[in-house]
Amino acid sequence: MKIGVLALQGAVREHVRQIQTLGCEAIEVKSMNDLPGLKGLVLPGGESTVMRKLLDRYGLLEPVRSLAKKGVPMFGTCAGLILLAKEIVGCEEAHLKLMDVVVERNSFGRQVDSFEVEISIEKVGKDIPAVFIRAPHIVSVGPGVEILAEYDGRIVLAKQGQYLGCSFHPELTGDTRLMEYFIEMAKEIHPSTLAKTNRI
Amino acid sequence: MRQVGTDRVKRGMAEMQKGGVIMDVINAEQAKIAEAAGAVAVMALERVPSDIRKAGGVARMADPLIVEEVMNAVSIPVMAKARIGHIVEARVLEAMGVDYIDESEVLTPADEEFHLLKRDYTVPFVCGCRDLGEAARRIGEGASMLRTKGEPGTGNIVEAVRHIRKVNAQVRSVTGISEDELMTEAKVLGAPYELLVEIKRLGRLPVVNFAAGGIATPADAALMMELGADGVFVGSGIFKSENPEKFARAIVEATTNYKDYQLIAEISKELGSPMKGIEISTLPESERMQERGW
């Protein structure tokens, strides 16, 4: 099973390593030619403003959006969550606008406030190490979005159908449970069947 | 339990910068240009290295007002430089909430024997290195990110190339030798033994290593990526060029797509002249910033 990692900038190799550890094939996505055949796409951590510029420059924004419309699951971590969100606080224009959540950037503060903590996520597992680096959080969610985890009164992990978005960086730890959860999602959602239901 | 300033949090921040360009800026306006061009972070300075060279005298931490101005102007991370071994400059920058501190040989060292004990700080540090011994000593002190020293403010890539090749060749060598040879290797390199054990196990450095010191063109940036840098710092190269905006964008693109030579050709057209540059052999040893640091 091929899982892509958007490889424009940021923590690409960490996601690649986790995907491979779980027995899947990891594809680094740098252009639209890398998209066909993907059963899932990971949008990694990095600088969201930079990734957006590069998505535009390499004409990847629309191809990634149409991949999503075909039902391919997507997992955004930190900057990746910001890319997925429909709305960003203080920003006129969001990026991929796929997941019905409003996010706020750098909402836990600057780098000196960045932290790690263990959180328990009912559907994923107990004591999952979560590294928050200049992290965003989900301010509010639309109907059909399931809140999977909160920390310090803020939503830090949510799922909406094919989309999974989290504030922190599971890829910076050796714990692959969240990636496993995403790969299970990708196995359950067959893009072809979802495309059909979308049509109805 | 919520923990700040752990290795994972500090090194992780640098991991997020991979594949990106960090640009030197001296005011809010330049910071905005850098952000708009796609910089992953900016380094707030009072003068870029080539002007530090020209000005001579003692180069110190930037005026906190400049740093603050830059922090308020952009949403990307802001770095700032402290003098080697200057505990108070570093603590001041940390107190201001700077995202990363560069304990930098570009400034005049405050201590000619000891570097900062960077492990003690919540803010992460980046340090320069010319070889694996230097790299490992800085990591040992707690640096969360490395960069080549190169020769700052010269617009001449030759020293940065020398340094990245040296570090990577030594990493390969440590990875390849047998475990019972590591202690002697540690002695030869002047590197902490435990770090060499870790490097051998990982097959790479435990922190990211960017290129810095002399990058003046998009092709220079791409060359450093080709040689295995995780990203690049551009100091004087951008705002000392004829068209900083265009130049900054071209460097970002060349860094991301360092193997796409047609693209690099396209973006290098009509960029205007890069900074003039200095031939290293004409620099007296006392003016070589890379000799600073121990």
Question: What is the helical fraction of chain B, as a range of percent?
Answer: 40-55%
Going by CATH, the architecture of chain A would be: 3-Layer(aba) Sandwich
Count of folded domains of chain B: 1
Distance between the termini of chain B: 37 Å
The largest beta-sheet of chain A arranges its strands as: 2-1-3-4-12-11-10
Largest protein interface, residues of each chain: A-B, 38 and 36 residues
Give me the strand/helix succession of chain A.
Answer: EHEEHHEHEEEEEEEEHH
Give the termini separation of chain A. Answer: 27 Å
CATH homologous superfamily classification of chain B = Aldolase class I
Family (chain A): Belongs to the glutaminase PdxT/SNO family.
Catalytic activity (chain A): aldehydo-D-ribose 5-phosphate + D-glyceraldehyde 3-phosphate + L-glutamine = pyridoxal 5'-phosphate + L-glutamate + phosphate + 3 H2O + H(+); L-glutamine + H2O = L-glutamate + NH4(+)
Organism (chain A): Ureibacillus sinduriensis BLB-1 = JCM 15800
GO molecular function (chain A): glutaminase activity; pyridoxal 5'-phosphate synthase (glutamine hydrolysing) activity; transferase activity
